[in-house]
């Protein structure tokens, strides 16, 4: 039996992510991936059972990276405003470090594959962020609302800023995120979330 080559696994992972970002999930196949990675299609099956297994493993590894970066220096016991600021700055840091992976997750988010990883993502983030949110509600730092409302107010503005940063703003095509923009937007979000 052939042994696993971690360098080859990393290459396959990176090429798969790039292909999906460039061509979408519908244009992705194991044969095309093998060709782009300059390996035999049979080699892929040393590492993955099939296309879905490959994609799920890549998704989980990207989520783990995102979580590591997003929660660096974060403690669920922090005051709500400080914890949110750390999360925002860390998520921007993740985007800067891993822009292709961020685009990859956007592709996955609007596919049937997302349903298969959605629970795992929620569980991973929930273990850390759940206690943080519940403490903030108990301390009257955060209004109690349905999760979808909380997430939409807490993080959607951040992700929209990131999109403007990469694609250009509505009126200013050269829009870039800076500390002033981050703080202004975060202050508005925190104000909206207060009881």
What secondary-structure arrangement, pairings included, does this model have?
Layout: H1 6-23, H2 30-36, H3 41-47, H4 51-70, H5 80-97, H6 99-109, H7 113-138, H8 147-154, H9 156-167, H10 179-193
Helix pairs in contact: 1-6, 4-5, 4-7, 5-6, 5-10
Please explain how this structure is put together.
With 195 residues, the chain is mostly helical. It folds into 2 domains: 1-48, Arc Repressor Mutant, subunit A, CATH 1.10.10; 59-193, Tetracycline Repressor, domain 2 (Orthogonal Bundle). The chain is 73% helix and 0% strand. It has 10 helices and no strands. It has helices at residues 6-23, 30-36, 41-47, 51-70, 80-97, 99-109, 113-138, 147-154, 156-167, 179-193. Helix 5 (80-97) crosses helix 6 (99-109). The termini are far apart. The mean pLDDT is 91.
């Amino acid at each position: 039996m052939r042994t696993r080559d971690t360098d080859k696994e990393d290459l396959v992972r990176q090429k798969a992510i790039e292909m999906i970002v460039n061509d979408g999930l519908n244009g992705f196949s194991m044969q095309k991936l093998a060709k782009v990675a300059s390996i035999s299609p049979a080699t892929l099956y040393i590492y993955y059972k099939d296309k879905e297994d490959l994609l799920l493993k890549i998704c989980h590894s990207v989520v783990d990276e995102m979580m590591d970066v997003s929660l660096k220096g974060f403690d669920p016991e922090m005051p709500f405003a400080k914890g949110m600021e750390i999360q925002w700055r860390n998520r921007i840091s993740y985007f800067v470090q891993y822009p292709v992976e961020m685009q990859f997750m956007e592709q996955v988010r609007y596919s049937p594959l997302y349903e298969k990883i959605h629970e795992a993502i929620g569980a991973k983030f929930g273990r850390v962020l759940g206690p943080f949110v519940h403490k903030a509600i108990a301390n009257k730092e955060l209004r109690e609302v349905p999760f979808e409302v909380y997430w939409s107010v807490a993080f959607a503005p951040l992700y929209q800023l990131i999109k403007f940063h990469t694609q250009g703003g509505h009126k200013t095509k050269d829009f870039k995120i800076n500390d002033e923009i981050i703080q202004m937007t975060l202050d508005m979000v925190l104000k909206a979330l207060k009881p």
